[in-house]
Amino acid sequence: MINKREVPEINAASMADIAFLLLIFFLVTVTMDVDTGITRKLPPPVEDNSSVDFNQRNIFEVLINSTNQLLVEGKPGNLATLKDETKHFFLNPDNDPNLPEKKLEQIDLIGNVYVSKGVISLKNDRGTSYEIYIKVQNELTKAFQEMRDELATEKFGTKYDKLVDPLKQEAVQAVIPMAISEAEPEDVGKTK
Amino acid sequence: MGRFRDSKSGSMPKISTASLPDIMFILLCFFMVSTTMRETTLIVKIRLPGASEVQKLERKNLVSFIYVGQPIKGTYGTESRIQLNDQFATVQDIQGFVAIEREARDEADRRLMTTSIKADRDTRMGIISDIKQELRKAGAFKINYSSRKAAKIR
Fold first, then answer.
1. What residues have CB less than 8 Å from A75, skipping those under 6 apart?
2. Would an 8 Å CB–CB cutoff place B79 in contact with chain A?
């Protein structure tokens, strides 16, 4: 009667703490690597190398040489000012005859707007560093993104990537197309 | 008196531990969903360039990766090399790689496929341009220059 004992139970209250420690350990160590990057669309290959004639005023030339220097519209360029120069070129706010032509177009949901015919021509050397190339692409993307944001805010009251309606997104895209053309790289620096 | 003594000798109130397995299970589920398994072991060194205007890659299962960088093992030299799946490859292998990747996907999803170029930031553009030319020939037009999200570059 007196010897009847219960099996001693292990206090399991600390198990929850252990679980929490584990959770924190994993949260700190595991990097949830979300893959991010700059998305681009490559042009389909062309068989005959017949060049499409572009009016010179419609082309914004960005060259990167093998020592990673920029040449923007024939003048030494700078990464810091590239975005604003691109925007100024593409939008041509003062209707400068040296900057791209604009065509009045009827676009759904927006109405009659002037659509710029400007094209950004990006050309790099085979020796150009990938990092600089990405930086230039980044600035160009930023320029287009800002122009789209401005237009979307003006017409629909929200930023471009906050537009829920895909038709509205398409309309903004139609007014400001991502007009970046990439030429085949040159091998001037003779670096592999 | 008897009641008094009783409460003093009483054991600790027991906490129910029945929910602990559930906690562990939730943990397990959480990590299974949130972490991505890396299927390929990198044999080239990749330090991604930084950019501020990055987009997230949607539909991970429709993305195929091309890695470019210096081989990690010094015996392979310092020249930038292309890695497809688990081995070194040349520019000529890319068309075949794209074809195999495309074959592995659902027919309806094929036009949504993206090729992500994960290249080291010190890579020269020559090799990247070659890859782009091959991708154009292979018909894989949607590409993504993989880069870190950096608030401020430079």
1. none
2. yes
CATH code where residue B138 lies = 3.30.420.270
For chain B positions 100-129, those within 8 Å of chain A (CB to CB) are 114, 116, 119-129
Separation CA B80–CA B123 (nearest Å): 7
With an 8 Å Cβ cutoff, are A137 and B36 in contact? no
**Domain spans of chain A, in order of start:** 86-182
Q: With a cut of 50, say whether residue A192 has pLDDT above it.
A: no
Tell whether B57 lies on the interface with A, counting CB pairs under 8 A.
Answer: yes
Q: Starting from the edge strand earliest in sequence, which strands make up the sheet with A75-76, in order?
A: A75-76, A70-72, A59-64, A119-124, A180-182
A126: nearest CB among B27, B129, B153: B129
What residue numbers bound the domain in which B143 lies? 44-148
Residue pairs spanning A and B at CB distance below 8 A: 151
Span A116-155, pLDDT tens digits: 888 888 888 888 888 898 889 999 998 988 988 988 888 8
Question: Rounded to an integer, what distance in angstroms lies between the CA atom of residue B147 and that of residue A104?
Answer: 37
- According to DSSP, the β-strands at B63-71 and B55-56 are unpaired
For A37, which of B23, B129, B147 is closest by C-beta distance? B147
